[in-house]
Amino acid sequence: MSDSPLLTRAEAAAYLRVSLRTLDRLDVPRIKYGHRTMRYERAALDAWITAHKEAA
Questions:
Q1: Which residues, 6+ apart, have CB-to-CB distance to 31 below 8 Å?
Q2: Whether pTM exceeds 0.70
């Protein structure tokens, strides 16, 4: 995984430990470039994880 704050779709899926299909179904913040290119900010994914944690 790169040190860039922007992740590709595959990198974001690996970061969240989900499949590409599951990533597409999740309501995670994404940045759309052009018609089909998506990027995901690592910090936004971390915030999304924190917001969606279930209480133990």
A1: 6, 38, 39, 40, 41
A2: yes
